[in-house]
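C-alpha cells please, single chain.
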Amino acid sequence: MNPDFEIEPSYQIYYSFTSSVDDDEPGLKYINDISIELAITDESGNRLKTIGKARLKIILLTSTEKQGVDPMYIFDSDGLLMEIGEQIYDFDEQAIKEDVLELIDFEISNDDIAVLTSFELLPEYRKMGLGRALIKDIYTRFQSSCDLIVLKVFPLQYNRRIADQEWQKEMEYDKLEKDFEMSEYKLKAFYKSVGFTYLEQHPDLMFLFTSQMNPILDNIDSFEDVF
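Here you go.
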C-alpha cells in the first residue's frame, strides 16, 4: 500500500522537452534538455503528488556532424557535460574514446549521447522498486535515439545549488549519509543494480549501452511488477 493513500493509486511519468535558441551559446542548440517527473495520479489521470524527478540531456552529436559544428561547443556550454566529455570523448577524432567502446562487443551506431544529470526519489517511496522502474522507462524511451547513457556518480545532498528549496526539504537531504565515500558507494551499487556498468579508469562515471542486451533491465517490465 502506498504510504500516502488509502487506495493504491496509479503512477504516471511526465516528460517535458526544452530547446535553446540562444545565439550567444551555439552549443546549446544541440542539447535536448529533458525534465522527468514521476507522479501519483488518481483513476482519472489527475496528478496528485510528484514523488520523483530526473533530468536528462541529449547531446545531438549526429546533428553537429551533419552541420559541421564542432562538438566542443556543446560540451563546453555546461560544466558537467564538459567534465564528462573530457573523460569519454575524443575531441580530435570527434568520437567516443576507445576505452569506453571496449565495454561492448560492437560499434555504436548512433553518436548521440544521453547524460543523466540527476535522479531523485522522495524518501517514503524508496526501496519499493520505483527507482528501478523509472530507470527502465527512461531506457525504453531513449534507447532508439541514443546508444549510450552516461552519468556522473555524485550524491545530491552535497549539491548546494539546488534551486527548489521546498523539494530539497521533502528529499530530506540533511538526513542522508554524511560520509561522501559511503554515499558514492551506495549510489554506484544502485545504478549497477539497474544495469549500469563502469570503468576503473573512470571511477566516477557509469554507463548504460542501450543497443546492448541488458538482462537486468529486461526483467523489469512495468510499474505493476515492482509491487
